[in-house]
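Predict the holo structure. Ligand: adenosine-5'-triphosphate.
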Amino acid sequence: MDKICSEFRPESKRPQPVIGHVLIEALPYIRKFEGKTFVIKYGGAAMKDEVLKNIFAENVTLLRKVGIKVVIVHGGGDAITKTSARLGLETTFVHGKRVTDKETIDVIQMTLAGKVNQDIVQLINEDGGNAVGISGLDADMIRAVPAPNAETLGLVGQVAEINTRYIDLICDAGLIPVIAPIGYDMESNVYNINADDAAAAIAVALKAEKLIYISDVEGVRVGNRILKTICKADAAEFIERGIITGGMIPKVVSAYQTLDGGVGKVHLVDGQITHALLLEVFTNEGVGTQFIIENEPTAEGAAS
Ligand SMILES: Nc1ncnc2c1ncn2[C@@H]1O[C@H](COP(=O)(O)OP(=O)(O)OP(=O)(O)O)[C@@H](O)[C@H]1O
Ligand SMILES: [Mg+2]
């Protein structure tokens, strides 16, 4: 035989059973979560870095393809500040929180529900995930009322009611809803709603299996250590003592509202870790911090 069209397996490339082990470790989780709903709050560095954005899109597509109903609620504070600057509008913060006047809410609506939302949708669809971009205004989804700090912060709302009809419809069609967290009332006001709070309220309304916050921190930090679990009483104390501050406060508060509302598990994962979402959902170890009501002895390896 002078020439063959078949191909020899390279000696150095033996089949790797370890990859098979990793994949099979996911099987019990795939079986457990098939048909269940995961609400994912997408924020932090994973929303800004090009590589991490693509990995996020692949991860949610995979979750959807194994039969998990994925619902994404996104942030976008940085994009709002940048658009405001391009329009020559000054952004005012009081204690680190954005003041939202009528002009600012227009910018928020157009930036969040327009650009930020559609960029996420496009990335997921490039991976075949079939995402649909919507905002809290679609199909009467998020009714809002002024938040307690609205006197200082303006058109900042809190969720009054979630209507899940449209989300259910999208999920039942095998698509991924990507939700911009704005709401409205019957007096023609549109409100900016903290994305953590909106995700929590949506998770409760959908009776989700899990709420997952994707952020740019390894987890909840106390001193120089990261907590694997955080219980409700400790969380309150850490806020009181100034150990949990800033953007972590709405996350922690809404995590416990979600658990009190009947959602099974709430996780905070680091969007800077490659495939953090898949590691959290499909492996025994998990990553980041899990929120729990109280500290009971748990079986080792029951992270997901
Ligand atoms: N104890 C703590 N552990 C971890 N992070 C903390 C703690 N206290 C305060 N933080 C801050 O909380 C921030 C996370 O909240 P932040 O609102 O900035 O992110 P995000 O919600 O993921 O993004 P976005 O609001 O843009 O959607 C961290 O970057 C960190 O600076
Ligand atoms: Mg935040």
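The first helix runs from residue 17 to 25. Residues 43, 75, 196, 247 surround magnesium ion (ligand 2) (CB under 6 Å).
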